[in-house]
Write a structure and sequence with these properties.
The complex is a heterodimer of chains A (341) and B (498). Chain A is mainly alpha-helical and 341 residues long. Helix content of chain A is 73%, strand content 1%. Chain A has a single domain, classed as ABC transporter involved in vitamin B12 uptake, BtuC (Orthogonal Bundle), CATH 1.10.3470. In chain A, strands 1-2 form a two-stranded antiparallel ribbon. In chain A, strand 1 and strand 2 form a beta hairpin. In chain A, helix 3 packs antiparallel against helix 4. Chain A is globular, with a radius of gyration of 21 Å. Chain B is of the alpha/beta class and 498 residues long. Chain B contains 18 helices and 20 strands. A 6-stranded mixed β-sheet of chain B has the order 6-7-8-3-9-10, with helices on both faces. In chain B, strands 16-17-18-13-19-20 form a 6-stranded mixed β-sheet, sandwiched between helices. In chain B, a hairpin with a 2-residue loop joins strand 9 and strand 10. In chain B, helix 14 packs across helix 15. The radius of gyration of chain B is 24 Å and the shape is globular. The relative contact order of chain B is 0.11. Classes of the chains: A mainly alpha (341), B alpha/beta (498). Chains A and B meet through helix 8 and helix 9 of A and helix 11 and helix 12 of B.
Chain lengths: 341, 498
């Protein structure tokens, strides 16, 4: 059937709206700020969004099975405090600290899925509970102190100095560059980690039977169950993956900061949720999808980076983020309305 | 002034399809006009136009001689047109009482002022319901009502605002026999009060009972119109566009070995001790009134629920069906009662819905899906169930009810079925698709045992080799089909004969 120009224009905007917005932002900030154009700067933007992207991909997994993991911010914070404290206070080798961080993440994922599949607590409420739990637990590790070299050991009866340190090998994951050469600073390692995670998540969700089953569970849990899909097992897997990715993000963040900052994961939660839902609108996907989430996270990252460079106060950033999220959701629900017609 | 709801040249296009082309239609006060047609024939489009669902449509509508444009739902109300949809819940607020729902418009519109006296509301509602002759408790919460009671409530609400033309969209599809009976009586009464009723149904027996006129739609056009008396065979022929032939495939006697047997299955309140035996090459019908426990029994056999007591044997060996996953692994498959809610992932294409239980078969190293193999499988199953359109990439939500059901059935035929359980598979499905489903059941019985649950006794007698009758959670009678007749089955189902 033939359709008029306005209608086709609307369709185009619905499909490519988010991508156009990213392009617009880059151009806009280029003219409004000075440093914002060369490859290094571009990679800097990606690095600034990399941790957020990893967290957002975790949230995406939970949304794929029609759940919602809001405990991710807590996991990031917990892992930051845990691994840095292990290294600085207890002199644990960094490889072992990393492993402990990931195991802690997996356990949180298991706890979430237990609350959801066994106790039948609605996803949002269960993970909200976990979020509070984790925000407290991360402070318990150091009795509320930040972790840094030469800090006072909070667990020592005579308040001795902690003598451990965070080794450069570990810091590399947050601060290092790969493939550096004479003319090129190299690719920031966090960007590399993000890219690997994104590609793996994409292959997993779109090309394996496990991903297909997860989407089926999210699309209609009852129908999936009656088709013989072990629904609870897939939901458990999704929450464990979500928590594991947040734990990984926490490791990168700890390496980037080089210390255990109190409340480090707090901002990631809302930004990751925003990124995931902005991703719904990319190419009119109308469902959680890996590249949508990546683009959504980069979009939010650019926005924050640009606004910071323009010296706008932090509260303006929140207002802008809110508007962007509403616009993106508006887009994706507008698409739903059109297709339903 | 010409009386009635009159439509001329009614049409509606969607991108890529013409759903309705130039249909003429008349609904007179005090008459029941039946509208029949296969799925996708344009019935729902016609209803939606008359209820003001679409902001635009082709053709013209007159109400009692006055031209009207029904482009908003409130315009339809204002002209006394009311629709009771199949999904009647969409018109009601579940958490509120019957009385509050009855006066919902007034409450929402501010006609009652700020303060609402619950007592006065209940009193008024009670009086109104009594005047209309509806047995509904005004204080009951809507979420606790049965489907039939909800229909009554919606009809009652319509009657309170000067109902002239009532559109009933397959009102008996999900009702029990007794409830359906009461609904038909109500339709008769409404006709007596001068209300014009447009009655959409798949059940031709109902057309014969209550309709004064019948219009048959096929592929968006009106292909036939009759006034009483009707020849049902002619109606079926008009719906199908071809002579109906035998709608049920021929029986195939001589069942093979026992595949599944159950002893003392018990899960109160709906399953109270059931024994049954299913054999290869046999289609067994499980019939009984709605609420007799058919669905619940099937769920036990599929592992969707766990029995409190009893034993299930597959090929002689006791099996523990801890979940549908376990049942599917053993070759026990269920076509569930509500295909949209329980059978399909509506946003996904036909291909993904077909392959869902057997993804492992298309998985290679690390779970990587072999898409070509999957697509080949989908095409094969599409051909086998004669899906229309035969497009593996079409989202199933765009298919008609009958074709959606074929997807669910086709999925299981692609496995290695030992036991196929069908739960009311022809509900809301047109005659043509019904015939296909009967054929598929018979075909799959070649290698498997088939248990076909249906509340429609004629269907049970037509499709099966053996009929089991269920009542109050027990199998109360079993006959070979040749020895069963409608009256006897009904007598057992209702408890007239124990």
């Amino acid at each position: 059937m033939k359709r008029g120009f306005p209608e086709r224009l609307a369709d185009f905007l619905l499909r490519y709206g988010v991508i156009l917005a990213v392009v617009f932002l880059v151009v806009f900030f280029k003219y409004r700020t000075t440093a914002f154009w060369d490859l290094d700067n571009f990679l800097d933007i990606l690095r600034a969004s990399s941790i957020l992207t990893i967290v957002a991909l975790g949230v995406t997994f939970s949304v794929v099975v029609d759940g919602f993991d809001v405990s991710v911010g807590g996991v990031v914070g917990l892992v930051v405090m845990l691994v840095t404290a292990l290294m600085v206070i207890w002199h644990v080798p960094w490889g072992f600290a990393v492993l402990t961080g990931l195991v802690a993440g997996a356990l949180v994922g298991l706890l979430n899925s237990l609350l959801i599949t066994r106790l039948r607590i609605p996803d949002l409420l269960a993970t909200l509970g976990t979020l509070y739990l984790l925000q407290g637990t991360q402070l318990l590790i150091t009795k509320g102190d930040a972790v840094y070299k030469g800090m006072t050991n909070p667990w020592s009866p005579d308040r001795a100095q902690a003598t451990g340190a965070i080794p450069p090998d570990f810091l590399y994951f947050g601060q290092g560059y790969a493939w550096a050469s004479a003319g090129f600073r190299g690719v920031p390692v966090p960007v590399l980690v993000m890219a690997v995670v994104a590609v793996l998540a994409w292959l997993f969700l779109d090309y394996t039977r496990f991903g297909r089953a997860m989407y089926a569970v999210g699309g209609n849990p009852e129908a999936a169950r009656l088709a013989g899909i072990p629904v609870d097992r897939y939901r458990t897997a999704a929450y464990v993956i979500s928590a594991l990715l947040s734990a990984l993000a926490g490791l990168v963040l700890a390496a980037r900061l080089g210390s255990g900052t109190v409340g480090a994961g707090r901002d990631y939660l809302l930004d990751a949720v925003a990124a995931t839902f902005v991703g719904f609108a990319v190419l009119a996907a109308r469902r959680p999808n890996v590249w949508g989430t990546v683009l959504g996270a980069v979009f939010v990252g650019i926005l924050l980076n640009g606004l910071t460079m323009m010296n706008l106060p932090f509260y303006v950033q929140d207002i802008v983020k809110g508007l962007v999220l509403i616009a993106a959701l508006g887009l994706s629900y507008a698409i739903r309305g059109r297709e339903g017609g | 002034m010409e009386q009635g709801l009159v439509a001329r040249g009614l049409g509606k296009r969607f991108p890529g399809v013409v759903a309705l082309k130039g249909v003429d239609f008349e609904l007179l006060p005090g008459r029941v006009h039946a509208l029949v047609g296969a799925n996708g024939a344009g019935k729902s489009t016609l209803i939606k136009i008359l209820s003001g669902y679409y902001p635009s449509y082709q053709g013209e509508v007159w109400v009692d001689g006055r031209p009207v444009r029904l482009v908003r739902p409130d315009l339809a109300f204002r002209h006394g047109i009311e629709v009771v949809h199949q999904e009647v819940d969409t018109a009601l607020v579940p958490g509120l009482s019957v009385a509050e729902n009855l006066f919902l418009e007034r409450l929402a519109g501010g006609g009652t002022g700020v303060w609402v006296s619950p007592r006065r509301l209940l009193g008024e509602a009670g009086a109104a319901l009594e005047r209309l002759g509806f047995a509904l408790d005004p204080a009951a919460r809507v979420e606790d009502l049965s489907l039939h009671q909800k229909q009554l409530l919606v009809i009652a609400r319509a009657m309170l605002r000067e109902l002239r033309y009532l559109i009933l969209d397959e009102p008996t599809a999900a009702l029990s026999l007794t409830e359906a009976e009461r609904l038909l009586e109500l339709v008769n009464r409404l006709r007596g009060q001068g209300i014009g009723v447009l009655y959409v149904t798949h059940r031709l027996a109902e057309v014969e009972r209550i309709a004064d006129q019948v219009t048959v739609l096929r592929e968006g056009t009106r292909v036939a119109y009759w006034e009483r008396p009707f020849a049902l065979a002619a109606i079926v022929e008009a719906m199908l566009g071809a002579p109906p032939g035998a709608i049920f495939p021929p029986r195939r006697p001589e069942p093979g070995e026992t595949i599944l047997s159950a002893r003392g299955l018990f899960r109160p309140p709906r399953v109270q001790g059931v024994d049954l035996t299913l054999r290869r090459g046999e289609v067994v019908a499980l019939t009984g009134l709605a609420g007799a426990g058919k669905t619940e029994l099937l769920r036990l056999l599929f592992g969707a629920d766990r029995p409190e007591a009893g034993e299930i044997r597959l090929l002689g060996r006791p099996v523990r069906l801890a979940s549908p996953t376990a049942a599917v692994r053993l070759g026990i498959y269920l076509v569930p009662e509500e295909r949209r809610r329980q059978g399909l992932i509506l946003d996904k294409p036909v291909r993904e819905n077909l392959s869902l239980p057997f993804l492992k078969r298309f998985a290679r190293f690390l779970g990587w899906l072999d898409r070509d193999a999957e697509r080949g499988f989908a095409k094969q199953q599409i051909q086998r169930v004669r899906l229309s359109p035969p497009d593996p990439e079409r989202p199933v939500r765009l298919l008609s009810g009958g074709n959606q059901q074929k997807v669910v059935v086709g999925r299981w035929l692609g496995g290695l079925p030992r036991v196929l359980l069908f739960d009311e598979p022809t509900q809301g499905v047109d005659v043509g698709a019904k015939r296909e489903l009967y054929r598929l059941a018979r075909e799959s019985a070649k290698g498997a045992a088939v248990l076909w649950a249906t509340a429609e006794i004629d269907e049970a007698l037509g499709v099966a080799d053996r009929v089991l009758v269920m009542r109050d959670g027990r199998v109360v009678a079993a006959f070979p089909t040749e020895e069963a007749d409608r009256q006897r089955v009904l007598a057992y189902a209702t408890g007239a004969e124990a």
